[in-house]
Amino acid sequence: xxxxxxxxxxxxxxxxxxxxxxxxxxxxxxxxxxxxxxxxxxxxxxxxxxxxxxxxxxxxxxxxxxxxxxxxxxxxxxxxxxxxxxxxxxxxxxxxxxxxxxxxxxxxxxxxxxxxxxxxxxxxxxxxxxxxxxxxxxxxxxxxxxxxxxxxxxxxxxxxxxxxxxxxxxxxxxxxxxxxxxxxxxxxxxxxxxxxxxxxxxxxxxxxxxxxxxxxxxxxxxxxxxxxxxxxxxxxxxxxxxxxxxxxxxxxxxxxxxxxxxxxxxxxxxxxxxxxxxxxxxxxxxxxxxxxxxxxxxxxxxxxxxxxx
Length: 309
Prior knowledge:
This protein is an alpha/beta fold. It has 3 domains: 88 residues, Alpha-Beta Plaits, CATH 3.30.70.100; 111 residues, Oxidized Rhodanese, domain 1 (3-Layer(aba) Sandwich), CATH 3.40.250; 62 residues, no CATH class. Helix content is 31%, strand content 22%. A hairpin with a 6-residue loop joins β12 and β13. The protein starts with 9 loop residues before the first strand and ends with a helix. It comes from Phyllobacterium pellucidum. This is tRNA uridine(34) hydroxylase. InterPro entries: Rhodanese-like_dom, Rhodanese-like_dom_sf, TrhO, TRHO_N. One of its GO terms (molecular function) is oxidoreductase activity, acting on paired donors, with incorporation or reduction of molecular oxygen.
């Protein structure tokens, strides 16, 4: 078993389940009350199609939340992936009601009716190495920028809503291929495979548990993963064994930046990075520079007060 740094103080749970959840509105208040009472932070999304979210807290608190959710028959047996963080990776707790637990914006897509074939992490390498397999990263461009599987096709989408149109535009290239798709935790590619199956493609596969499960289960020396995996919390990224990665966020554009990006002349902390420099005006950068100055002053005051206490 891979070392997950489980001695770190915060347990992070990424969870989802597609299910018939007609009473989802009634779960919002008790879930929010439970999480806040336990010191859990993060986001949970509830919709008629199920539950999705990532939260963090003590190991005991996370177990209580999982037990609460498992007590709901419709969502018992959720897809769950655990990792750990040295600091609380979320600022607040949110329980939101949504139309979709992962937004594709296509009506009548139901992973409970039709979905691609699940592939366990230990069998993934053989599938994607096959010459008749086309490997597709269903994540967005800011996620793929810091890591993906070797040989994967990057649709360069800004949002998941763009993915169906990308598939439509590339149908000819997908014909006659085994189509293997992956995402961070498995939820997006469940919906993506349901959509692709609905177009008439038969040989459709997706990575069970997503990249996170692959990085947990597959030894680094056998891995076909390159780079780090973007995660939607203050850790920014994780690597093999789900250890915290080296990527950071540009506080001007909120895109992940790798260590090499910080060597670029276009990088200035809190002001710009190679991803956003040419999309901002001088006035924007001046405003961001003033904001960063205030951040530094606030940090200095905090440190001084701490030393004086």
